[in-house]
């Protein structure tokens, strides 16, 4: 019985040591997993920050391009308005010149008609004499 008790005690001690060794390995494995999880979380957080920064930069560029487009559109609109005004003035000047030419032609026509009447009158007067 004593020998059985000793064998049982030895076996129990051996199993206890194996269990302690297993618990230590399990503890190290758990710590390694937690460290890996922290690294993954840090990598995810870093990637999230990078994506947010890129999104902010894209938004800033979009805003800048929209402002540039609005400025360019306004500039073109002002140029077009200026051109339209110049074109309107040129058209008015041409119409005024056309009216003056028409008036000059009409005056010349009246002068020619008056001269023709006067010649006709003088001719009639000379024929009567």
Structure commentary:
With 129 residues, the protein is mostly helical. Helix content is 98%, strand content 0%. The protein has one helix and no strands. The chain has one helix at 2-128. It is rod-shaped, with a radius of gyration of 55 Å. The chain starts with a helix and ends with a helix.
Topology readout:
Layout: H1 2-128
In helices, the fraction of residues equals over 70%
Report how far the terminal alpha carbons are from each other: 187 Å
Tell me the series of helices and strands, N- to C-terminal. H
List the total number of helices.
Answer: 1
Biggest sheet overview? none
Overall average residue pLDDT: 96
Give me the secondary-structure category: mainly alpha
Number of strands: 0
**Percent in strands:** under 5%
- Model regions low in confidence, pLDDT < 50 over at least 5 residues: none
């Amino acid at each position: 019985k004593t020998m059985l008790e000793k064998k049982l005690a030895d076996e129990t001690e051996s199993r206890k040591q194996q269990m302690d060794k297993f618990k230590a390995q399990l503890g190290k494995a758990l710590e390694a997993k937690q460290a890996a999880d922290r690294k993954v979380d840090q990598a995810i957080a870093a990637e999230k920050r990078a994506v947010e920064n890129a999104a902010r930069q894209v938004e800033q560029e979009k805003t800048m391009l929209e402002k540039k487009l609005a400025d360019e559109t306004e500039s073109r609109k002002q140029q077009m308005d200026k051109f339209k005004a110049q074109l309107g003035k040129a058209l008015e000047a041409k119409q005024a010149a056309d009216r003056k030419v028409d008036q000059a032609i009409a005056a010349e026509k009246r002068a020619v008609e008056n001269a023709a009447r006067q010649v006709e009158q003088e001719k009639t007067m000379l024929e009567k004499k």
